[in-house]
Amino acid sequence: MRVGARKPVPSEGLRQNVQALDDQLESRILPLREVRQRAEAAAVREALALTGGNISRAAELLGVTRPTLYDLMERIARRAPNK
After folding, report:
1. What angle do the packed helices 32-50 and 12-27 form, to 10 degrees?
2. In a domain, 13, yes or no
3. Contact 63/27 with Cβ under 8 angstroms?
4. Do residues 49 and 62 make contact, with C-beta atoms less than 8 angstroms apart?
5. What's the pLDDT at 65?
6. Other beta carbons within 10 Å of 45
7. How far apart are CA 55 and CA 64, in angstroms?
8. pLDDT of amino acid 16
9. Burial letters 51-73, b for 16+ CB under 10 A, else e
10. Is residue 73 domain-resident?
11. Residue 10, domain member (yes or no)
């Protein structure tokens, strides 16, 4: 990150996603793998939204490399139900 650059503040959408996960955990116990996958997918969507779809910037926000972000996006897409 550039010197003097401000870190983005998590948006209300991210807070709502986290709250939704919290609500689900209170209503039933989820396997850790499922919770982690949901949180990962929410974080990727949020980072992409914050950066207007800029993969390099989204990867930077998430603290991963671009290739890792592409891998995450591919895994998330494979888990998504076909529409």
Report:
1. 170
2. no
3. no
4. no
5. 98
6. 16
7. 11
8. 79
9. beeeeebbbbbbebeeeebeebb
10. yes
11. no
In a domain, 16, yes or no: no
Range of the domain at 66: 33-83
The tally of domains found in the chain comes to 1
Provide the pLDDT for residue 83.
52
Q: How many Cβ atoms from other residues are within 10 Å of residue 24's Cβ?
A: 14
pLDDT 10s per residue in the chain (83 long)?
555 666 666 677 777 777 777 776 666 777 899 999 999 999 999 999 999 999 999 999 999 999 999 999 999 999 887 65
Rounded Cα distance between 44 and 83, Å, is 20
Provide the pLDDT for residue 71. Answer: 97
- Spatial distance between the Cα atoms of 69 and 72, rounded to a whole number of angstroms: 5
